[in-house]
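Support case: user asked for a sample of complex input and structure output to validate their parser. Sending the pair below.
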Amino acid sequence: MEILELLKRPWPWYVAGPLIGLTVPVLLLLGNKSFGISSSLRHICAAVIPAGLPFFKYNWRKESWNLFFVAGIAIGGFIGNFWLGNPDAIVVADDTRQTLAALGVQDFSGLMPGDIFAVSNVFTLKGLIFFVLGGFLVGFGTRYAGGCTSGHAIMGLSNLQWPSLVATVCFMVGGFACTHLLLPFLLDLVR
Amino acid sequence: MEKSGQHSPIAEADFDNIKIDGCDGANRQESAERFAANLKYLLVGIVFGIVFLKAEIVSWFRIQEMFRLDSFHMYGVIGSAVLVGLTSVWLIRKFNIRTLSGEAVTIADKTFDKGQIYGGVLFGIGWAITGACPGPLFAQIGAGYLAVAVTLLSAIGGTWVYGLVRARLPH
């Protein structure tokens, strides 16, 4: 039982980081697969809405391992939250919490701010900004960059690829700029 | 990357299924795999998803802390992940460790184009808004944040639009 209690607590970075890093050799040794998650979005396009575009013309079935992998991530998310869930509220750093509260975020009880990421917000301005616009940028941006945090920051850097370092730096630049310049404006819009 | 000849000597592109920008998450196994073989990737995904959830990497708040430099957590996660990945790839090369089916491990080189800059910044903006990169999107949905399904659909739409306008974008 003690082990279960321990597992239910939030895992520290020095446990989670190495486990994520191990995904790189595990996928390589299981079947010569390069770690990368954003490609799953492309395979879904290729499988469902290829529309004759050359970018989606390839044998997506050969890449279906990636779709199994992301399906697993969803199942893992379910297990982690419902069977191994942290009984306590998330601990958010004081400074971040105060800044966000001043910007209008109210719900600090879960992993996601419940006042933004609720199903009831899907057809509101909040939904348009935080789901539709945000999601579009994630999908468009990762494909334009040729990878995401997994494909570039972890797999690419593990393989000493300098274009991946450029991409990783740009991810951070975009994130910092958005957090400090754009997000206050967006949160104010939906207040 | 656009070669299609069948006998060009050790042409990297011929090796890959995806001819355009295909180095992210690529399958480079030569022998075909059966449907059931994919279940091992499902299993790896499940473990990975649990780690994502339990280390709260899927949390919008953790991403905010990272971009506000208020917590070391995410830097520790990504930094130690890269360190372990780097060491593993080095060990695989050094000792010529082979895959389960006995093939040599190969990893495609990333080729630089301006997409890594423009696309990278655009993704960074989306990352700060949604609090998620593509992996956590799946974990968030599994964790019951069903509204994120809309984010995922929109991300698929964004990927599709990129495929549509790709030729007209600076690369």
